[in-house]
Amino acid sequence: MIKSLIIKKTKSNLLQNKSTGKTSNLKDAGSVLLLFENSDFNQVMELAATLEGEGKSCRYVVYSDVPRKNIPLIKGIFFTKRDLTFLGFPKSQIIQYFLQEADRTDILIDLSMHNYLPLSYLISLSKVKLKVGIKKEGFDLFNFMVDVPKNMDFKFLSEQIMFYLRKLKS
Fold it and tell me: Phi and psi at residue 44, in whole multiples of 5°?
């Protein structure tokens, strides 16, 4: 029942929050917001280094199913199940921070390989013009979706997303 409530609210948000912004391709983007799972931290930092080498400013939204353990300082926010309401929605301070980051972002890239409802809910609130991620069951969260096999690894996912983003023209 709680899961269906989050799904319903997420779908409602998607209808209400139309994308805004100026950038619809990687070449013209100045800032990128990367959403990902804590287990992929080191690989995302490598991807971010590549993007920053191309002149992009990267910020992060990290979600973990397990409590925080030795998390390095990041330019962004890290949240866990403890940061969710009893209904499973992110708490208001997480939402506020996310929306502040999203408002100054040209491209949102969801690098999470699982369908975490708290991340999906946050993405649905965003008005970023170009939202990119893998196709997830039950939602059309993104303007640009990559369909990848179920057993893919993070490296394959990030390579596919970056390959297609570099090909995308406005």
Answer: -65, -35
What amino acid occupies position 116? Answer: Y
pTM, two decimals, is: 0.85
Alpha-helical segments (H) within the chain: 2-16, 41-53, 92-103, 117-125, 154-167
* Residue 129 CB-density burial (10 A; 0-12 exposed, 13-18 middle, 19+ buried): buried
Taking alpha carbons only, the member of 70, 68, 71, 69 closest to residue 83 is 68
DSSP symbols for 16-43? H---B-S--STTT-SEEEEEEEGGGHHH
118-136 confidence digits (pLDDT tens): 999 999 999 888 999 988 7
Sheet holding 57-64, edge to edge: 76-80, 57-64, 31-37, 107-110, 130-134, 144-146
Spatial contact of 118 and 84, defined as CB atoms under 8 Å apart: yes
Q: What is the reported pLDDT for 149? A: 79
